Amino acid sequence: MTNKMEKGIANKLENKTKTVHKKKGTKTKTKQKQKQTQKQTKKQKQSPKQKQKQKQKQSQEKEIEVEKNKHNETKLKTISSSDSSSEGELFEPLSDDRTESEEYSQSSSDREAFYDHFLSDSSEDEDLRYTQPSTIGNVPKEWYNEYEHEGYDLEGEKIGKKVIKKRDELDEFMSKMEDPNYWRTVRDSLTNEEHILTDQELQIAFDIQSGKVANPDFDPFAPYIEWFDHPEGKIHPLTNAPEPKRRFVPSKYEAKEVIRIVKAIRNKSYVPTWRKKKIEEKKQKKEESQKHYLLWKDTETDNDFKSNYTRTEQKLLKSRIIAPRPYLPGNHESYNPPPEYLPSKGERTRFENTQEIDRRTTFLPEKYDNLLDLPSYDNFVKERFSRCLDLLFCTRVRRRRKLINPQDLIPKLPNPQDLRPFPTSEMLQFVGHTGRVRSIDVDPTGQWLASGGDDNTVRIWEIATGKCFKIWNFKETVYDVKWNPRVSLSILAVASGDLLFIVDNGELIGTQSQIENNNEYLKHLNVLREKEHFDEIEEKRNEKQKQLKKIFKRRKVDTNWRKPTKLEQATLSGKERNNYGRIAVIIQAKNEIKKINWHSKGEYIVTIIPKGGKNAVFIHKISAIRTQNPFGKSKGLVVTAEWHPTKPIIFIATQSHIRIYHLIEQKMISKLKPRVRWISSLAIHRGGENLVIGSFDKNLCWFDLELSDKPYRDLKYHSMAIRNVTFHKLYPLFASCSDDKTIQIFHGKVFDDFTKNPLIVPLKILKGHKWESKDVRLGVLDCVFHPIQPWLFTSGADKTIRLYC
C-alpha cells in the first residue's frame, strides 16, 4: 500500500510540473513575438543615421552576450563538478514537453536582466546591492552603538556585531608595502568589509574626478533634437487630453469689457490706456514737485479746499492733529472779579515764595473799577511766544481709548493679613512731658524707654507699666536721645544744646553685671578732671590710640571733654528720692548738636552739628577719650548720619544728597541722588544694602545700593512733611511718621536671592496724635520700633508718647 501511495503522489507531481512548464513556455513565446513586432515598426520609422547607430549597438550587444555565455558556462561546469558527489540533484530534470533550447533561452534572459541590473549606475541599486547580504535592513548603525548587537533577523533573534580587527600603523605600513592591491582596496561603511576595485570601477572613478561622464557609451556632444521640429514630424503631443469646451465658446468677460467701452465711447468719456498712463505720470511729477503744504490750514472752514489741493495734500491735511485750543478766560482773569477770587495776604506770600513751576496760575487776580485803569499785561508776549514754541516743537499724539480692566492696573500684592505681625492699634500712652517730645529710644533689652523734648528734661519709662523712673533736668532743649546698642551696658547719650552727655544708668535700672560692665567701659574717664581740655591729656594715650591716627587724618577739633561738677550733677539728677545714676562725661561743642548715633559695637558715637560748617560731623570714641573730624570740607548742610551695621562705612545725609564713605580706605564709595529737595531722616536696613529716606516734601524713597544710585521706589503716602523713618531689627517692617498726624506701617522684605527685588507693601495707617495748635501744625516727631516685639513707639508735638501693638 505504501508503494502504491508513493507512486500516485509522484505521478501527480509530474503532471503539475508539466502544466507549469507549458504555461511558462507559452508566455515566453508571446513576449518574444511582441518584441519582434515593436522592433520592426521602429526600423520602418528610423532615419539612415539612426539605423547605422542601431547596427553598431547590436554588434556590441552580441559581443557582450558571447562573453556572458562563456562566463556562465564556466561557472556551471565548476558547480556541476563540485556537487556531483553530493546526494540529490541541484537542478530539476527537464520535462518531456520542455526542450534544451527553451531552457537555455529562459536562463539567458534572466542572466541579461541580472547583468543589466549589476551594470546600472543608479545609487539606489548600489544601496540595495550592498545591503542585500545583511538582514538588518536600511537602518543607521549608529542606533546600535550602545548595544552588543546590530539588529534582528527574520525570526526576531539578535544579530551580534562583527568583530573588526583594527589595524595598527605598523600593519597598515606592511600591507602598503607587500599588498599590490592596497591602493585599490576600499572599506564599505555599510558592510564593514574590504572591496578591491576593478579596472572598470577605477576608470569610472577617474572619469568622475576629471569631470567626464561615467558611462563611456554616452555621447555628451550629440546633436540636440528639438521637441516640435523633429525630422519625422511630431511624434508625441504635450498632452493627450481633449480640447475643453471653453475654447470654442466666446468669453463673457470680453463681452462685458466690449459693452463698457462702447458705452464710454457713446458718452464721450472713453480714455485709452496709453492716455491714462501719461496722465498718471504727470500727476506723480506734480506731487513730487509740490511736497510742501500749509500746516495751519483749516480744512473744515475752507470752501476751496478740494480745488486748491491735490488728493495727497488733502489726505495729509486731514490726517494731521489739530492744535489744542487755549482755555477760555474765567472769573479770576476778569478786571473786576468777585471778592471771593481776590487773594489774601497769606496767599500772596505763599504765591511769591513758591517757584514758578509749582504755581497753579501765572498771576494773581486784581480788581479795577474801569477798563481805562487796567494796565497792559506784562507776560502777554512771553505767553504767546511760549505757546508758539509748544505748537511748533511739542509732539502731539492721538489718544485712542483702550479697553482696560481697572483691576489689572492695581499691582498684585499679598494680603496684609498674611504679613502679620505688625502694629495695628494704640495700647498705651506715656504722659508727663510739658513740651514737645522730640526724641525717643528703647534700650536693647526692651524694658526701658528714654524720651527728651522741649521741656529740657529726659525721662526714663518702664514699658511694662508706663511708670516714669527717672527725670534728668537740663538747661537747654533736648534734641536727641540714644541708648548704647550693647545689651551688656546701660548707657544713655543725650544731646542738649551744644553739650553731649554720657549718662551711666547702671545703678538706676541695670543689673549687677551691667553695673560692672559700665564701670569697666567708663574707667578711662577717671583720668579727666573737671573742665579739662582734651589736648592736656594727649601724652597719656596708649599704643591703641596711636594706631587710630592711620584711620583718620589728624585735624584740630573744637570739642572739650570734662567731668561734671558736683553742682551740675545735683542739678541734673534733680531733687527726687531716686538719685541713682550719674553723668559720666560731658563733651562740649561750639554749636547745637541736633543728631547723635551710636555704632553697632557701642564704641563710637557720631554727632551732627548742622551749623558747624567744616566741623559739622564729629566721631567720638568714649573708651579712648578721643574726638575726630574725618571731613575737612563741608559738602552742604549736614542733616543726619548713620552707621553701616557690619562694615566700617558711614552714611552722611546732606540737604539733597547722601554720601557713603569708607572710613578705613578714607574715600567716598558712592553718592546717592534722591529726587527730593530737603532730606529729613535716614534709616538703614539690618542687611546694610538697602535704606529709606524721608523728606520734608512728603516723599519716602527706598534705595537698593546694588541696583542704582537713584531710588528704587518713591512712596508718596503722606500729605505733609515726613519727620522720621525707622526699621525693625528682627521683623521685615519699617515705618514713617509725619506732620499729618499719621504713621505709615510698611512691609519691606529683602530677599537673599539677587534676582528678586525687595517687596514693599503698605500695611496700616496709625492715627492718634494731634497738632500742637491750629497755627503750628506739628504732628508726629519721632518713631522707633521695639527691639524684640513688633511694637512701635511714637512721640509728638502734643506732649505724649504712644505705644502701638
UniProtKB/TrEMBL annotation:
Q: Where is the composition biased (Basic residues)?
A: 18-56
Q: Where are the WD repeats?
A: 430-471
Name its cellular compartments: Nucleus, Nucleolus; Nucleus, Nucleoplasm
Say which domain of life the source belongs to. Answer: Eukaryota
Coiled coil (residue ranges): 527-554
Tagged with keyword Coiled coil: yes
Locate the BOP1 N-terminal domain: which residues? 144-423
Q: Which Gene3D superfamilies match?
A: YVTN repeat-like/Quinoprotein amine dehydrogenase (2.130.10.10)
Keyword Cell cycle carried by entry: no
User: Which keywords accompany this UniProt record?
Assistant: Coiled coil, Nucleus, Repeat, Ribosome biogenesis, rRNA processing, WD repeat
- Please give the chief subcellular localization of this protein: nucleus
Q: Outline the segment boundaries, as ranges, of region: Disordered.
A: 1-138
Name the Pfam families on file: BOP1NT, WD40
Which residue windows does the record flag with biased composition (Basic and acidic residues)?
1-17, 58-76, 109-119
InterPro entries given for it?
Answer: BOP1/Erb1, BOP1_N_dom, WD40/YVTN_repeat-like_dom_sf, WD40_repeat_CS, WD40_repeat_dom_sf, WD40_rpt
What task does this protein carry out?
Answer: Required for maturation of ribosomal RNAs and formation of the large ribosomal subunit.
Q: Which family does it belong to?
A: Belongs to the WD repeat BOP1/ERB1 family.
Which protein, by its recorded name, is this? Ribosome biogenesis protein BOP1 homolog
What species is this protein from? Anaeramoeba flamelloides
